[in-house]
Amino acid sequence: MAQVFIYPATSLILSDLVARFGHKPLGTALSVRERIQTAGLDSPPLQMTPDDAKKGLRWAAVEVPSGVRGRMSLFGPLIDQAEAAIIVKNPDFAFGCMGCARTDELVEFLIKQKKIPILELYYPADEEEGIIFVRRVRDFLTGLGGSS
Amino acid sequence: MKEKIPPLYAGTVTKYVFIESYKATPDDIAARAYEVSGQVMIKETCFGLQITGREEEVDRVIAHIRALDPAHIYVKDRGFPPGDPRRCRANLGGARPGYFGHEYEMGFIRRISIGLEQLENASERPENESEQKETEGLSVKRLMELIDQEA
User: Fold this and answer.
1) Which domains does chain B have, with CATH numbers?
2) Residue B77: in which H helix or E strand, if any?
3) Which among A42, A63, A146, B97 counts the fewest CB atoms within 10 Å?
4) Which residues in chain A show pLDDT less than 50?
């Protein structure tokens, strides 16, 4: 079973497909769960804290906006653990008030720096592409070995 | 003064179960989940369920649910447990932020369902499987076809 980083890290489709084909999806939920189940001095954090922007300095420079650094405090540890990655390119919902294009670029860059197996896709625009999408994900995950 | 919230359901996992099926409804999968619920906590929602408990217990319940309609039931992890006072709209006084991503993906998840159904039928493998359609511009493959036609 390989640990597969998915991006968008909140993707239902990628998370489901990775788990369905026998691997462990690394998505934001794992980072959030770790935070809220860990007791701090006062209590678990609301979600993000000022400290997260500092933790993000490991992956992004100090002049990078705090929003990017805060996001990297969630994604960074997952990228460090990742043994493979599946990235959907330019998803609409990862831009605008929901997401951050600079974080998207940085995450993609960091994953490519790791030299791990990467599958890059676009969301399917029709049924035929849906079939291709699923088959490509299946073939990629099967190639990682250890799947059930 | 900042309200102190102890860690809730430490050591558990929470998973979303989404259903997009013409054969079953969220009610159906809830009934099926209760059949084998054991020690897990199940919250029914309009899109499916949220299941909280020890990981192996949750996986067992999900495997039982999924057998109902494998290609149309989707599962993903959730960070917060259901009813968490930091996230639940009962405490926030209004609509809960989030679900934009789910809403977006659920809009075309039937295409993934079709892909999953087709996996079992290898004979219908499309010719251009190696790559998805180009989003814009002319693909090299198409250009070669045009050159061949003109030759």
Assistant:
1) 13-122 (3.30.70)
2) strand B73-78
3) A63
4) 148
CB contact under 8 A, B77 and A135: no
Report which of residues A24 and B123 the model is more confident about.
A24
Encoded tokens for B91: 């405490």
The answer to whether position A134 is within a domain reads yes
* Cβ-Cβ contacts under 8 Å, A35 against chain B: 79
Please check the confidence at residue B117 and state whether its pLDDT lies above 80: yes
Based on C-alpha coordinates, what's the Rg of chain B? 22
- Give dist(CA B71, CA B118) in Å, integer: 10
Q: Is cis: bond before A8, omega within 30 of 0?
A: yes
User: pLDDT tens digits, residue range B60-110?
Assistant: 999 999 999 999 999 999 998 888 887 777 777 777 666 788 888 999 999
| Residue in this structure with the two tokens 């599962």, named with its chain if needed | B75
Does the residue A47 lie in any domain?
A: yes
Question: Residue A66 belongs to a domain with what CATH number?
Answer: 3.40.50
ipTM over 0.85: yes
Q: Would you call A32 and B79 a contact, using CB atoms and an 8 Å cutoff?
A: yes
- Is the pTM higher than 0.90? no
Report yes or no: A65 and A102 within 8 Å, Cβ to Cβ: yes
Q: How many Å apart are CA A17 and CA A81, to the nearest integer? A: 19
Quick one: tokens of B74?
């989707």
Domain that holds residue A125: 3-143
The tally of domains found in chain A comes to: 1
Residue B83, Cβ neighbours under 10 Å: how many?
15
Chain B partners within 8 Å of A29 (Cβ): 76-79
A148 lies in some domain: no
